[in-house]
Q: What sequence folds into this?
């Protein structure tokens, strides 16, 4: 079968929800095109802006860097966080350096140790049972670290590599956890009070499977193993369930995304119009925007210093 776009090369991949069969070249081009439409239609990025791309060294973030580079017209800089995970993070950082070097993109690298005084390994080594999951703890620190890197790189906007699957999984997770208010903040074009730099998600309309294929066909070197601390629990069941639905009903994830975006848009205007809605206040300790007395980072740091073995021993 020939490629449904160019009709010149054999088809390599069939996009089941649209019925198109594409050759490698047309597939790669279609992903870049789609992201170009997403960033334009959703007003995520403007030409000439300095865009910080949060790059972990996995397939999604390195692909995002390459797609934005290929779209052209942006002043790109990679923002990378070294969480400090012995035997894991170094490989990813090497891939980031290789790809940045190849594309001619500058890299701003920050580490937990430098910003918070401890590595993730140290922070997670508790004497007692930990009541916070490794991912939620790391997430709090990583968001702040990206903000710091963005400030150093003087970017106008930060782009993160969350794809369509990530978005619909998070939507479902919020429903399953009863965190309905959080749905108001799932806007892929960013916004919201108290956020130092706007964050956008240019891969919101691209299936995870297609990002992976894009990375493979573009010969992007990336770290294939996941973080040793990753513990997904319910999320991986939600992922499997959505993938099973998609296999039986191609396109169902696209429909769920568009429903999720509508819910978020209605909820966020309700939050904006609510006169009782509380805005951000400065954190009592570090002065960064916070929803209450201490910000998430300062609260989490306090917990770490009280419980982590090495750090507690150091006093
Ligand atoms: Zn083709
Ligand atoms: Zn604080």
A:
């Amino acid at each position: 079968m020939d490629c449904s776009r160019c009709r010149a090369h054999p088809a390599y991949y069939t996009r089941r929800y649209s019925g198109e069969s594409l050759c490698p070249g047309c597939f790669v081009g279609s992903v870049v095109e789609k992201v170009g439409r997403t960033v334009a239609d959703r007003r995520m990025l403007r030409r000439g802006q300095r865009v910080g791309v949060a790059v972990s060294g996995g397939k999604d973030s390195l692909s995002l860097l390459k797609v934005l580079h290929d779209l052209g017209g942006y002043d790109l800089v990679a923002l990378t966080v070294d969480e400090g995970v012995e035997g894991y993070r170094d490989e990813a950082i090497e891939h980031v350096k290789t790809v940045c070097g190849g594309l001619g993109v500058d890299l701003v690298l920050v580490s937990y140790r430098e910003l918070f005084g401890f590595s993730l390994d140290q922070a997670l080594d508790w004497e007692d049972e930990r009541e916070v999951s490794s991912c939620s703890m790391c997430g709090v620190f990583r968001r702040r670290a990206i903000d710091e890197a963005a400030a150093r790189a003087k970017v106008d906007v930060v782009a993160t590599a969350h794809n369509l699957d990530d978005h619909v999984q998070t939507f479902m997770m919020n429903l399953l956890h009863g965190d309905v208010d959080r749905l108001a903040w799932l806007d892929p074009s960013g916004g919201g009070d108290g956020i130092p730099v706007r964050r956008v998600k240019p891969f919101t309309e691209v299936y995870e499977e297609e990002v992976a294929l894009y990375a493979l066909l573009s010969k992007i070197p990336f770290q294939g193993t996941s973080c040793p601390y990753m513990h997904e629990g319910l999320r991986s069941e939600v992922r499997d369930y959505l993938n099973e639905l998609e296999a039986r009903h191609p396109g169902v994830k696209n429909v769920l995304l568009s429903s999720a975006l509508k819910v978020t848009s209605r909820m966020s205007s309700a939050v904006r119009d609510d006169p009782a809605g509380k805005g951000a206040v400065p954190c009592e300790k570090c002065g960064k925007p916070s929803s209450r007395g201490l910000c998430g980072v300062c609260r989490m740091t306090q917990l770490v210093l009280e419980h982590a073995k090495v750090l507690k021993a150091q006093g």
